[in-house]
Amino acid sequence: MTPLERNDRLIRIGLLMIALSAISILAIITVFIFEQGTPIMFKYGLKSFLLGRDWYPTEQSFGLLPMIVGSLMVTAGALIIGVPLGLASAIFLTEFSHRRLTRILKPVIELLAGIPSVVYGFIGLMFLVPFIRENFGGPGLSVLAASIILGIMILPTVISIAIDSIRAVPDSYREGSIALGATKWQTVRLVVLPAARSGIVAGIILGMGRAIGETMAVIMVAGNAANIPDSILAPVRTLTSNIALEMAYAGGEHREALFATGVILFIIIMILNTLANVTTARQRRK
Amino acid sequence: MRQAEEKPEHRPGSGEKFPFFPLFKFSSGSIIFILLVALLLFPSCRQGKSGHTIVVAGSTSIQPFADKWAEVFMEKRHGVVVDVQGGGSSAGIQAVRTGAADIGMSSRELRDDEKELYEIEVARDGLAIIVHPGNPVDSLTIEEVKSIFIGEITTWEKFTGQKKAITVVVREEGSGTRGAFQEMVMGKSRISRKAIVQDSNGTVREIVSRDPNAIGFISLGLVNESVKALALNGVKPTEEAILNREYRLVRPFLFLTKEAPSGLVKEFIDFVLSEEIQELIHKEGLIPVRPITRSGG
Amino acid sequence: MSLRLKLKPKTEQKIIQVILYSFTSIAVLVLVFILVVILKNGLPQLSLEFLTRNPVDMGREGGILSTIVATIFLTLIALLVATPLGVGTAIFLTEYTTESWITRVIRFGAECLAGIPSIIFGLFGFILFVNKLKFGWSMLSGGLTLAFMVLPTIIRTSEEAIKAVPEAYRLVSFSLGSTRWQMVTRVVLPSALPGIVTGIILSVGRSIGETAAVIFTAGSALRLPTSVFSSARTMSVHFYIMAKEGISMPKAYGTAAVLVISILLINVTTYYLMEKYIRRKK
Fold it and tell me: Does residue C34 sit within a domain?
């Protein structure tokens, strides 16, 4: 082996070590969160954590059901608001508008993806919450407020990925459809959207991940009552806000219960990630 | 992972053999730089902890006030740093026990198993029940307050005649303010699950000041014109009423140390107990105290 | 559905067009509204004094200097750790190996890491750096936590940038007798540099805007940080606390404006670089 070759081998091993950093970090995070969070779940029983409705952690009552339901409700709400708006915008910008308009608006929308979540939360607190309180009743801090804010937050993600995947559909598909006498909308609905489907779905899943993982904006507008909401005007607490709200003070089992919250959040996110990976992989294969 | 992080250090060695691409020179150089900086700072920081820095940690009810006391103290004593952290009463007690903090701040009485710490009462604080300034209610009984927070009384009808739903705003589990409220008002009863939860006194005040139907509790020292503090059993939360114990929702602001205060720590505590700061305490709506030092076993 | 069947295709298209148009307008207007509100209320607050004075009285008075300094240093620490790791990973994935289970595991790790919510990073950083390694609430803990958070972004963009370097460059380099490492450092990295920088700038944006992961690892001390072991409050955390507790709305708007402007500038730069170097090559 020449010195040069040996050097190259050393470099390769060094780079491999570095390359394994991402997966090791993931492993360390997983180990830490589970190590801190699972013992208490088994001590009091998985059932009492997942199905308990009472969250009084200083009195050993650790029901996380309200937060699990809360996270799911708010995320569903975000999708109900964000997906139609986002998809419509993407379709409009790719198929129905002037090229020049698209060339201006797409970057603008993508730039807005960088606005920090606290800013969204703040706008929600200043404008949306009082609006809901005065016009629909309730405290304003509510499922509705959180859903709308999250829906707006995921818009840039949904729009920009949907635009990319709609653009990736070859023009020959459209030309063929138009040649057969279809209107533009028929073409979009019957040809373009089905072809771009898995990309759009991946974008939606990404947006969903962002919504379910968002913390600060939700704390600001959701009201954080640890109770299963009985209407969309009632306050709600998500898994993420449960952690962030109480972490500062928690000690002993209370803190462990917050890590248990993290474990459940982690599992939900991992399921979503795998789903997203599978869908994008399917698209790549196409 | 550690191996991976250390790897870049070795690059300059191999870099002598080949003239490398500038990015790498830059990044390996800067890594060495940051390591050096870290090494330089590390001992100085350690030193500083005993010499010129006091770490004060604990109750977020005391934190905003302590921040100000520290600000004034640092103006007087150049070169001294007082690092004020939140974390909550329990975390503060824990921090002073483990030595992570020189002074712990607690806004609740110590439990029996915590009594080995030295406690110095630096101020007293009333707990105010607050509503929107436009709310016609001026006074409630403690029992009524309790029923509202349990969730038995859900509208303002009984008090104002208007059938408006009450928005109950509370602090989160584990907070000293919530602990004090639980102990002094709720007793064994639980606060309703439906209550809105916020993680600081300021946020509770902010929400109550915006929602005409809201009720909440915050530190009396933080009450301002944006909210109205209710009288309890007809007694207004004034300084007089607190001093002669007519207003019952009062808690101590404690400074805790592991050993009898000495050196800079003692200097800071004495400073807080000095006339100047006690006057400042008074101005900010807290109740000043005479020093009571107890030493435990 | 049944309604759609009865409509003439042309009418249907007209209706759909109106719907699409109005939805798009709503989406764009809402996003622009947020920007306008922040800038309209925040810009009047900005002055040299606001940027160069420390906060006084919890931020009611004074400026935001200490939070700007904290933000810059935290971001620097994050990048100094994440860049070598991220670029190294990308080099390994593209130049030093072929597709195998190892690359799949590495990519899977990076993708999962990208999907983990910031609050989980915060929890993790709090336990590992603040508690176990005893760094306390400090810029070091915060910076390392952020480094882990932005690592996937740097890996992905660097990988894309390196892949975009034409294969011919490599062949020429090899044919001139260079080793792989020489080829990577002298040929591939220089031409992939703009793309790599894009990823780094993108990470800067993310670090600046992050709140949840930072508040539990770097703490929220308002003082000007003096060492990597000082607790510090970044602009985002400062804004969060000021806005939520209603400490001072004008100052909160001012902070938000600085935050938003710096992130927009960063994103515009990234966008420009991407357009110029990456997308064009494809």
Answer: no
